[in-house]
Amino acid sequence: IALLIFRDLPDDPAVEWDPQLLATLVLKHIEAKNINLVVTFDAGGVSGHANHISLYTAVRYNVCKLLWVPPWAGCRVLVLESVNLCRKYISFLDVLISCLLPRDALFILTEEETEQAKRAMKCHRSQLLWFRQLYLLFSRYLVVNSLRLL
């Protein structure tokens, strides 16, 4: 089954994943791990990444099941807010803007947590293209994350 998943769900920002397959996999994981909160991307996928958007689509497709149908009843879904390019790359300065705008949850990382996130990203050398180096320096997502209930 792992081979099927990797073939059908390639890590590629231009590939849309099958929402039905992904929805099934997500629900199986929620049930197996008794998960009561799912955090995912919003419809913008933060950067227009097709894989991220597909994940949002799959979770949104199942939101009624997650909230009302046992064994998933009561599972909540938070979606990470996509922001415009300017806000995306003003790092900690976006904390001020984020605090003034409506949202259901706001996470502000400490300096230690930000450094931990940067170290984690650096573990994935294949993902560290030139633009992700800029991301590590300037992204607001390494400092502040605003989310909305789906």
Automatic annotation (TrEMBL):
InterPro entries in UniProt: GlcNAc_PI_deacetylase-related, LmbE-like_dom_sf
E.C. numbers: 3.5.1.89
GO cellular component terms, A-Z: endoplasmic reticulum; membrane
Alphabetical GO biological process terms: GPI anchor biosynthetic process
GO molecular function terms attached to this record: N-acetylglucosaminylphosphatidylinositol deacetylase activity
Entry similarity comment: Belongs to the PIGL family.
Designated name of the protein: N-acetylglucosaminylphosphatidylinositol deacetylase
Protein's organism: Leucopsar rothschildi (Bali myna)
High-level lineage: Eukaryota, Metazoa, Chordata, Craniata, Vertebrata
